[in-house]
């Protein structure tokens, strides 16, 4: 009887020879990671000390904290939170990554995406480490269990297998693939389960593209997403890995709760209309709809391939006067790579506003839309008020589509600019 | 199992699929920390008289994938302040489910619940029997069993007491 990659990782983490979906086990996360946020980390740190008498975490290398929200701080209160975080990390000797970029991306860059590892965070977008064969789950406040104990209680999830076939056409991106999956499979298709991506189409996607798809998995209801890592993913992850583990793979005869076949050939650009990430539509049906602002960034997009295609679309062209295009590379490493490649120059000359890596445009701290305005966005979410007034609207789409829309001041098909 | 059964009226039925709980208080109010202010904001888009009608012990009912999106904690804090003691839905979104169970808020998945109850029916959530009973109509439906950790967390009254009990 075969096992899925998720079952194999949880079996090792639980110290058991094998586990099956439905088993309730105590598993030891290889890494416990979090970003600082008011009401989250500050509360956990306080609770550890006051409720559980934990002055220092044992084994500090198992933990990592990122400062990627409220960067730069714009009020003394925000800076106070960062001080709490810095102090806790220093006292506990826990690695701290500040101003390096959006944590879920940086986590992969600095070696927490160890193939075969089990990682927990409170935030669900950490699922993108699954690109590298890491089982990474957002467990919300239950992260406190991982802060105060070595092991956490977990019910081994079932797995939904998605076999991708074919190859994307020019101008169609991984972002389109993910929202197409939501449309085809449904917003609850992977509820409480693991979304496992496989099939020959996976090889035609870039590592960055897979980070997009795995990172957004929660919008299919999934607890996380994972890929059986191929050579390209291992070549990225293994030299950076913080611990030595053997990568694991799903068995041929593993048990899946459902199997979907998704064709990448012929896939068209899509747009997700407000107010929920479950509303995938064909972009052509919304082309021409006036938009006033665009955001290219977030842990879901804003990587080099996103900046590259945006530059391809915008090279020698101009953002429509009055349209505000905000571009935020996902990490400092990506910003530097884009600069070396000349992408930043092209984007700036086209009229884009480039901002340093931060979560702030995505979670709504930098939220400037007023009532009646519309945005095209590669952020994670299009719920009301995410980018300003609850009476503004967010249309989620790919980086290519954001760039094309910036030229026209209206939702636009990127393919005509490539 | 030492979980206390819930008995109360169906104070509201959220019929929308993939319901985003932030809408309960409205996104513009999500950062309010004063519990009375939050409770005043709750349900204004759905039933402006909700606060006057609701009674301690009342229960909420939801459709499939209740809590989808990026749910925040204030909406259910407001509901608890108004006296809501539990939630039953066709199914729940995992992030929302985990978040509220860790707050010690009793919730049960009950496929078919929308067909079982109407607003203001008196219902009973019987954990031991594993059913929701519609006491007004004399009907019932099974609930999905809780995972052991979820059950213990509800019994303990939330994440922190749970961790203290099972350390």
Descriptive notes:
The complex is a heterodimer of chains A (418) and B (167). By secondary structure, chain A is of the alpha/beta class. Chain A has 14 helices and 18 strands. Chain A has helices at 5-14, 41-52, 76-92, 103-109, 143-148, 174-185, 200-203, 207-215, 231-237, 304-314, 332-340, 343-349, 360-363, 399-408; strands spanning 24-27, 31-35, 63-67, 96-98, 118-121, 135-138, 152-155, 159-165, 194-198, 224-227, 258-263, 270-272, 280-282, 293-296, 324-327, 353-354, 374-377, 393-396. In chain A, the strands form five sheets. In chain A, strands 4-3-2-5-6 form a five-stranded parallel beta sheet. The N and C termini of chain A lie far apart (48 Å). Chain B has 167 residues and is an alpha/beta fold. Chain B has helices spanning 35-41, 50-53, 74-81, 94-102, 113-116, 148-156, 159-165; strands spanning 6-14, 59-62, 86-89, 107-109, 122-126, 131-134, 139-142. Chain B starts with 5 loop residues before the first strand and ends with a helix. Chain B is globular, with a radius of gyration of 15 Å. Chain B has a single domain, classed as Alpha-Beta Barrel (Aconitase, domain 4), CATH 3.20.19. Chain B: InterPro entries: Aconitase/3IPM_dehydase_swvl, LeuD. Chain B: This is 3-isopropylmalate dehydratase. Chain B: One of its GO terms (molecular function) is lyase activity.
């Amino acid at each position: 009887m075969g096992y899925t990659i998720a079952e194999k990782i949880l079996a090792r983490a639980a110290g058991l020879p094998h586990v099956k979906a439905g088993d309730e086990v105590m598993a030891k996360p290889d890494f416990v990671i979090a970003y600082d946020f008011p009401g989250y980390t500050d509360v956990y740190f306080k609770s550890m000390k006051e409720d559980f008498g934990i002055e220092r975490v044992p084994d500090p290398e198992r933990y990592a904290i990122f400062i990627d929200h409220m960067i730069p701080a714009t009020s003394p209160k925000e800076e106070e939170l960062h001080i709490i975080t810095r102090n806790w990390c220093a006292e506990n000797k826990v690695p701290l990554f500040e101003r390096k970029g959006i944590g879920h991306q940086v986590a992969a860059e600095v070696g927490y995406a160890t193939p075969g590892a089990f990682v927990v965070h409170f935030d669900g977008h950490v699922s993108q480490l699954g690109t590298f064969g890491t089982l990474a789950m957002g467990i919300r406040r239950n992260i406190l269990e991982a802060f105060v104990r070595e092991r956490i209680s977990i019910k081994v999830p079932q797995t939904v297998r998605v076999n991708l076939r074919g190859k994307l056409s020019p101008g169609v991106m991984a972002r389109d693939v993910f929202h197409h999956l939501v449309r085809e499979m449904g917003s609850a298709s992977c509820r409480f389960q693991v979304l496992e991506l496989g099939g020959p189409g996976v090889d035609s996607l870039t590592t960055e593209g897979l980070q997009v798809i795995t990172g957004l998995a929660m919008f299919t209801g999934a607890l996380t997403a994972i890929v059986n890592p191929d050579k390209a993913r291992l070549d990225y992850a293994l030299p950076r890995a913080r611990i030595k583990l053997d990568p694991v793979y799903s068995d041929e005869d593993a048990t899946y709760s459902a199997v979907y076949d998704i064709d990448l050939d012929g896939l068209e650009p899509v747009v997700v209309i407000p107010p929920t990430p479950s509303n995938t539509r064909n972009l052509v049906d919304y082309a021409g709809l006036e938009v006033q602002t665009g955001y290219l960034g977030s842990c879901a997009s804003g990587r080099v391939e996103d900046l590259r295609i945006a530059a391809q679309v915008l090279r020698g062209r101009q953002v429509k006067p009055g349209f505000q295009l905000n571009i935020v590379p996902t990490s400092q490493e990506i910003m530097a790579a884009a600069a070396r490649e000349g992408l930043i120059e092209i984007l700036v000359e086209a009229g884009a506003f480039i901002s340093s890596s931060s979560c702030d445009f995505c979670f709504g701290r930098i939220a400037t839309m007023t009532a009646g305005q519309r945005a095209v966005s590669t952020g994670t979410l299009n719920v009301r008020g995410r980018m300003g007034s609850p009476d503004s609207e967010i249309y989620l789409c790919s980086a290519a589509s954001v760039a094309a829309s910036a030229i026209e001041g209206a939702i636009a098909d990127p393919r005509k600019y490539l | 199992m030492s979980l206390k059964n819930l008995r109360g009226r169906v104070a509201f039925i959220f019929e929308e699929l993939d319901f985003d709980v932030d809408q309960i208080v409205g996104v513009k109010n999500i950062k309010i920390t004063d519990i009375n202010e939050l409770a005043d904001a709750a349900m204004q888009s759905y039933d402006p008289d909700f606060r006057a009608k609701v009674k301690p012990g009342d229960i909420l009912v939801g459709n499939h994938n209740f809590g989808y999106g990026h749910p925040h904690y204030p909406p259910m804090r407001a509901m608890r302040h108004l006296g809501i003691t539990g939630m039953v839905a066709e199914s729940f979104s995992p992030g929302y489910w985990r978040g509220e169970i860790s707050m010690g808020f009793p919730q049960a998945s009950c496929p078919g619940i929308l067909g079982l109850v109407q607003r203001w029916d008196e219902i009973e959530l019987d954990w031991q029997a594993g059913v929701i009973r519609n006491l007004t109509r004399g009907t019932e439906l099974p609930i999905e069993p809780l995972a052991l950790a979820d059950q213990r967390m509800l019994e303990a009254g939330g994440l922190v007491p749970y961790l203290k009990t099972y350390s």
